[in-house]
Amino acid sequence: MTDPGLQPERTHLAWRRTALTFTVVAILAARHAADHPAALVLIAVAWLAFCGTAYTRGRTTTRPLPHLTPVVTVCSVLALAVAAVLVR
């Protein structure tokens, strides 16, 4: 059963905006961590995981993924935090 209204489109656009923002943050973090390979790997993994989740979540508005989305989001933020500690 699909929602004929605009809610799926709004959800998809919101996830795209969030992924774009996360991409900008990841690029800035990678520029700062250019001399630290471990930090760059963490940033890349966090970016791939978050963008993959955003893409999946934006496309599957009829089948919510209640457990996956918060876990990947928290893990992505923690990976960026660990990368920041490694660079420091």
From TrEMBL:
Keyword annotations: Membrane, Transmembrane, Transmembrane helix
UniProt xrefs under InterPro entries: DUF202
Family matches, as Pfam families: DUF202
Protein name, as recorded: DUF202 domain-containing protein
Taxonomy of the source species: Bacteria, Bacillati, Actinomycetota, Actinomycetes, Pseudonocardiales
Top-level taxon of origin: Bacteria
Species in which this protein is naturally found: Saccharothrix mutabilis subsp. mutabilis
TM segment ranges: 12-30, 37-55, 67-87
Limits of the DUF202 domain: 3-56
Chief site of localization: membrane
Membrane topology label: Multi-pass membrane protein
KW 4Fe-4S (keyword) present: no
Location of this chain's protein in the cell: Endomembrane system
Coiled coil: none
